[in-house]
C-alpha cells in the first residue's frame, strides 16, 4: 500500500484553501502548509496532489441507487455501478431492492453487500424490500435483513408504492424497534394505472395518459400523518411536485420525523422535453413543470428537502429505443449528479458548496445512521472525500460513463463541475478524473 | 416538410396546399380512369400496428391511384407479433426501398419517433398514433367542411381553392380525452380560421384542455343553442362504456348522443347567414344508437359518406406532395408541402 497523500491548497467546502494530509484511511491533518511538516516528519512515501483551484468536499452518499444485480446484469452490476459511483464522487451508495430476486431476504441483501465489499469502488448498502417480492401484501423479513451481515436499516419498495395504509403503518412501527426507517415511493396506484407522463398541458396535447401530481401528494399526506401518529421515521423518495414540498414543509413544522429526497433530474428537467417522445425522458416519477422545478429548488435550498438521491436507473439500449409507452422508466444519474446540481443550485445562487455537502453527504449519512460517511473535513475523520473542479465544463458524454446505462437525459448538455478525485478510506478510486484502482485492488 | 406527423405542425399555407391539391385529386377520382402516373416506381408501405381496415384501404386506394407500388404490412401475424422491435421492422422496410411509410400505431408518438430516428429515409405519414393525432382524418374533415362552407357562400359552381374556414363554428362532441381525431381537428380547424367548441362529460376531457384554443361545454343542448355550423361526433370506444368514465351507454346517449330530438335542433341550424343547412360529421366507424342516432347518420345533413370519399383525395394529395417534392430515396430536406 502507498503511504500518505498530501492534498495542497484545496478549497474546503469551496471556501478558504488548506492542505489535507490523508494517512491510514483517515484525515491525519488539516492546515496551512502541511508540505513542510510532511517533509520533515514523514519518512514514508507521500503522494502530493496539487489541488489549486479544486474544491474539497466530503464523499457523496446516495440513498437511492439501482445497481440491478442480481438479475439484470445486462443493465448494471455492482462492479460497474460502483465504478460509476466513484466517477460521480460517491463514496457510499444504497442499492434499491428491486433486483431479481427481490432483496427481501437476508440472503439477497448479504449477497449485494458482499459484492460491494469485493468491488471496493464505493461502499454499498443494500436497501431491503418492505413487502415480499415488492408485492405490497405481506411484510418481508425486515428483522432478518436488519440482523444480517448487511445490517439493513433502510427499507423501501421503491418502484412500487406501499399503498395499503395499514401495511405502511405496520412497517413503520416494526422497523422503529431496530432504528430502521421506511423510504416511500409515493404513487397512488389507481390514479396512475396507465400513466406515461406528468398530467397537464403537455400530456393533453401529446395524447399520453397523465400522471397527476395528486397521486404523489395524496400518499405523502397520508404517510406524514401516519408518521406523526406512530412516532416513526419516514423518508420520502424522489419528491417531484410543488404540492409535495408544501405538504412536507407543513409536516416538518409540526415536528413529524420526515425527511425528503429530490433527484438531480427533477431539479432541472421539465415535461416539455416529452414533446420529442424520446423515451430517455421517461422516468418515475415523471418530469413535471417549471413551477414544480422551482419549488423543488427552493425546498432544497431551505431544507424542506433534505437530500439529493440520484435514482440512478440504468437500462439496456433496447429498453429505451422503442415506443414511448413500451419504454422502461428511469435515467442514469451517478455520473451527472454533481454537475446537474451545480447547474441547478449553485450556478443559480440558491446554495453554496457547503450546503451542497450537506444535501449530498452529511444529511443522507445522518438519515441512514452512518458513523463514518458524511463526516466533516477535519483531522481524525475518515478520509472519504472528493476533489471537484468547479470550472471544468464540456458536454455530458454518456458513452464515456462507467455505468452500463447510456440512458442519460443530459447527453450533450454543457454542465459545470467535474469530480477529479474520489478518496474512499484514504484510497484514490478516481484520480485526475479517471478511475484508478478500487480499495480491493481492482482496475477499471 | 418531409413528413406529416401532426396538424399542429402545419401552417395555413401548407394546409391549404394540401386541401387544394386534394380538390384536384377529386377530379381524378371522378374520371372513368382513376389514375395518375405521378408516383410510378415509388413504394408506399402501409405499416399498420393497429387494425384499421378503413384507413388502410383508403391509403392503399390513394397510393394506387397515383401509380405507386403498395406494400401492406400488418403487425398481426408478422414478425412484430413475435417480438420484433419497431426499429428492426422499420429498418427492414427501409432496406426494401420504401419511399413513404404510412404508419398506424397504438402508441402516441411512434410516427414522430420514426421520423426523428435514423432508421429510415422514407417520408413518414401519421395514419393515427395512440390518442395523439390523426392528421389525414382532420384534413379530410376540413376538405368536407370547406366544400359546403364555400358553396353556401359563393355557390356550387365556384371553386373553394385557396379559401379557408374563417368564421365557421365547429362543435366536436364526445370522447375528446382519447381522441386523436379531436386533437388533429382542433389544431387544423383553428389554423384555418374556424372557431372550435368541445362538449363532453368531464371525465372525457383532458386535464390541460383549458390551455387549448377552444370553448368547453358540458351540456350538448347548451352547445347546440350556441348555433354551430357543423357538429363532429366522436366515436365512443366500447372499452370506455361501463367503466368509470360514464355510467353506461344509455346515459351517454341521453346526454351526449346526437339523438333524434337533438337532430331536430340541428335541422334548424344554418351555415352562418346562408340558407344551407348545418353539417353532421363522424370519422367512423359509428356506434349507431350510442353517440349518433340512425336518423342523424342517414340525414340529409350528414356528410359521413362524403368524408370517406374525401379521405382518398386528401391522402392522394399528401402522398403526392411528400413524394414529388423531393426526388429519390436519400434526398435532402426540401420543402414540398
UniProtKB/TrEMBL annotation, chain A:
Co-factor(s): Zn(2+)
Annotated catalytic residues: 311
Alphabetical UniProt keywords: Hydrolase, Metal-binding, Pyrimidine biosynthesis, Zinc
Gene Ontology cellular component list: cytoplasm
Gene Ontology terms for molecular function: allantoinase activity; dihydroorotase activity; zinc ion binding
Signal sequence, renumbered to the chain: none
InterPro entries (UniProt xref): DHOase, DHOase/Allantoinase_Hydrolase, DHOase_cat, Dihydroorotase_CS, Metal-dep_hydrolase_composite, Metal_Hydrolase
Pathway noted in the entry: Pyrimidine metabolism; UMP biosynthesis via de novo pathway; (S)-dihydroorotate from bicarbonate: step 3/3
Positions of the Dihydroorotase catalytic domain: 55-242
Top-rank taxon, per record: Bacteria
Enzyme class (EC, first level): hydrolase
Binding site for substrate: 66-68, 98, 284, 315
EC code: 3.5.2.3
Keyword field contains Zinc: yes
Free-text remark on how the cofactor is bound: Binds 2 Zn(2+) ions per subunit.
Matches recorded under CDD domains: DHOase_IIa (cd01317)
Pfam families linked to this entry: DHOase (PF12890)
Biological processes, Gene Ontology terms: 'de novo' UMP biosynthetic process; purine nucleobase catabolic process
Residues that, per the record, bind Zn(2+) 2: 158, 185, 238
Positions with a binding annotation for Zn(2+) 1: 64, 66, 158, 311
Reactions that this protein is recorded to catalyse: (S)-dihydroorotate + H2O = N-carbamoyl-L-aspartate + H(+)
Role, per record: Catalyzes the reversible cyclization of carbamoyl aspartate to dihydroorotate.
Family: Belongs to the metallo-dependent hydrolases superfamily. DHOase family. Class I DHOase subfamily.
UniProt name for this protein: Dihydroorotase
Organism the protein comes from: Garicola koreensis
Gene name linked to the record: pyrC
TrEMBL record, chain B:
GO cellular component: cytosol
Domain Aspartate/ornithine carbamoyltransferase carbamoyl-P binding: 2-146
Pathway: Pyrimidine metabolism; UMP biosynthesis via de novo pathway; (S)-dihydroorotate from bicarbonate: step 2/3
Reactions it catalyzes: carbamoyl phosphate + L-aspartate = N-carbamoyl-L-aspartate + phosphate + H(+)
Keyword line: Pyrimidine biosynthesis, Transferase
The keyword Flavoprotein appears for this protein: no
Gene Ontology MF terms in the entry: amino acid binding; aspartate carbamoyltransferase activity
Aspartate/ornithine carbamoyltransferase Asp/Orn-binding domain: residues covered: 167-321
Enzyme class: transferase
Pfam families according to UniProt: OTCace, OTCace_N
UniProt EC number: 2.1.3.2
One GO-annotated biological process of the protein: amino acid metabolic process
Biological function: Catalyzes the condensation of carbamoyl phosphate and aspartate to form carbamoyl aspartate and inorganic phosphate, the committed step in the de novo pyrimidine nucleotide biosynthesis pathway.
Protein name listed in UniProt: Aspartate carbamoyltransferase
Amino acid at each position: 500500500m502507498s503511504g500518505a497523500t498530501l492534498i495542497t491548497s484545496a478549497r474546503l467546502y469551496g471556501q478558504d484553501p488548506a492542505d489535507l494530509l490523508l494517512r491510514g484511511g483517515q484525515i491525519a491533518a488539516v492546515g496551512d502548509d502541511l508540505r513542510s511538516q510532511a517533509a520533515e516528519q514523514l519518512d514514508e512515501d507521500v503522494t502530493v496532489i496539487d489541488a489549486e483551484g479544486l474544491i474539497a468536499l466530503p464523499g457523496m452518499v446516495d440513498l437511492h441507487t439501482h445497481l440491478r444485480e442480481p438479475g439484470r446484469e445486462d443493465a448494471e452490476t455492482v462492479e460497474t455501478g460502483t465504478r460509476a459511483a466513484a466517477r460521480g464522487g460517491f463514496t457510499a451508495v444504497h442499492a434499491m431492492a428491486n433486483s431479481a430476486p427481490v432483496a427481501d431476504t437476508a440472503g439477497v441483501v448479504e449477497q449485494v453487500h458482499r459484492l460491494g465489499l469485493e468491488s471496493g469502488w464505493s461502499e454499498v448498502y443494500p436497501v431491503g424490500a418492505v413487502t415480499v417480492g415488492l408485492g405490497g401484501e405481506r411484510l418481508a423479513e425486515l428483522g432478518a435483513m436488519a440482523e444480517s451481515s448487511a445490517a439493513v436499516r433502510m427499507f423501501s419498495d421503491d418502484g412500487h408504492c406501499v399503498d395499503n395504509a395499514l401495511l405502511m403503518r405496520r412497517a413503520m412501527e416494526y422497523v422503529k424497534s431496530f432504528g430502521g426507517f421506511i423510504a416511500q415511493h409515493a404513487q397512488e396506484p389507481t390514479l396512475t394505472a396507465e400513466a406515461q407522463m406528468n398530467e397537464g398541458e403537455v400530456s393533453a396535447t401529446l395524447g399520453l395518459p397523465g400522471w397527476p401530481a395528486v397521486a404523489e401528494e395524496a400518499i405523502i399526506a397520508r404517510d406524514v400523518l401516519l408518521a406523526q401518529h406512530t412516532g416513526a421515521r419516514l423518508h420520502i423518495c424522489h419528491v417531484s411536485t410543488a404540492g409535495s414540498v408544501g405538504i412536507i414543509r407543513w409536516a416538518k413544522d409540526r415536528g413529524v420525523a420526515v425527511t425528503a429526497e429530490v433527484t438531480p433530474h427533477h431539479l432541472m428537467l421539465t415535461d416539455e422535453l416529452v414533446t420529442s417522445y424520446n423515451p430517455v425522458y421517461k422516468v418515475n416519477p415523471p418530469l413535471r413543470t417549471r413551477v414544480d422545478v422551482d419549488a423543488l429548488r427552493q425546498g432544497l435550498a431551505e431544507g424542506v428537502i433534505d437530500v439529493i438521491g440520484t435514482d440512478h436507473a440504468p437500462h439496456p439500449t433496447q429498453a429505451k429505443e422503442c415506443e414511448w409507452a413500451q419504454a422502461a422508466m428511469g435515467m442514469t444519474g451517478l455520473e451527472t449528479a454533481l454537475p446537474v446540481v451545480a447547474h441547478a443550485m449553485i450556478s443559480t445562487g440558491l446554495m453554496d458548496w457547503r450546503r451542497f455537502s450537506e444535501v449530498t453527504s452529511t444529511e443522507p449519512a445522518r438519515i441512514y445512521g452512518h458513523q463514518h460517511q458524511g463526516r466533516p473535513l477535519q483531522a481524525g475523520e475518515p478520509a472519504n472525500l472528493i476533489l471537484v473542479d468547479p470550472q471544468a465544463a464540456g458536454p455530458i458524454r454518456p458513452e464515456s460513463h462507467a455505468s452500463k446505462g447510456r440512458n442519460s437525459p443530459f447527453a450533450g448538455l454543457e454542465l459545470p463541475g467535474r469530480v477529479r478525485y474520489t478518496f474512499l478510506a484514504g484510497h484514490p478510486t478516481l484520480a485526475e478524473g479517471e478511475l484508478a484502482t478500487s480499495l480491493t485492488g481492482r482496475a477499471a | 416538410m418531409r413528413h406529416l406527423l401532426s396538424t399542429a405542425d402545419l401552417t395555413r399555407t401548407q394546409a391549404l396546399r394540401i386541401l387544394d391539391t386534394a380538390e384536384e385529386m377529386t377530379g381524378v377520382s371522378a374520371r372513368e380512369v382513376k389514375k395518375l402516373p405521378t408516383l410510378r416506381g415509388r413504394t408506399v408501405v402501409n405499416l399498420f400496428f393497429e387494425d384499421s381496415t378503413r384507413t388502410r384501404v383508403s391509403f392503399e386506394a390513394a397510393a394506387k391511384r397515383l401509380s405507386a407500388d403498395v406494400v401492406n404490412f400488418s403487425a398481426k401475424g408478422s414478425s412484430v407479433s413475435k417480438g420484433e422491435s419497431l426499429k428492426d421492422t422499420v429498418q427492414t422496410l427501409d432496406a426494401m426501398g420504401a419511399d413513404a411509410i404510412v404508419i398506424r400505431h397504438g402508441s402516441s408518438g411512434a410516427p414522430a419517433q420514426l421520423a426523428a430516428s435514423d432508421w429510415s429515409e422514407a417520408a413518414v405519414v401519421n395514419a393515427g398514433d395512440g390518442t395523439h393525432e390523426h392528421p389525414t382524418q382532420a384534413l379530410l374533415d376540413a376538405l368536407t367542411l370547406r366544400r359546403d362552407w364555400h358553396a353556401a357562400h359563393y355557390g356550387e359552381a365556384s371553386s373553394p381553392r385557396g379559401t379557408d374556414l374563417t368564421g365557421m363554428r365547429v362543435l366536436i362532441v364526445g370522447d375528446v380525452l382519447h381522441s386523436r381525431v379531436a386533437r388533429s381537428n382542433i389544431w387544423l380547424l383553428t389554423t384555418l380560421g374556424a372557431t372550435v367548441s368541445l362538449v363532453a362529460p368531464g371525465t372525457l376531457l383532458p386535464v390541460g384542455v383549458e390551455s387549448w384554443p377552444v370553448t368547453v361545454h358540458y351540456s350538448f343542448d347548451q352547445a347546440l343553442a350556441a348555433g354551430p355550423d357543423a357538429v363532429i361526433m366522436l366515436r365512443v370506444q366500447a372499452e370506455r362504456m361501463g367503466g368509470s368514465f360514464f355510467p353506461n351507454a344509455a346515459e351517454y346517449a341521453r346526454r351526449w348522443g346526437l339523438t333524434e330530438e337533438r337532430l331536430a335542433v340541428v335541422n334548424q341550424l344554418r351555415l352562418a347567414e346562408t340558407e344551407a343547412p348545418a353539417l353532421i360529421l363522424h370519422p367512423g366507424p359509428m356506434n349507431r344508437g350510442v353517440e349518433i342516432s340512425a336518423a342523424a347518420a342517414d340525414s340529409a345533413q350528414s356528410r359521413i359518406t362524403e368524408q370517406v370519399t374525401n379521405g382518398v383525395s386528401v391522402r392522394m394529395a399528401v402522398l403526392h406532395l411528400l413524394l414529388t417534392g423531393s426526388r429519390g430515396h436519400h434526398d435532402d430536406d426540401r420543402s414540398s408541402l
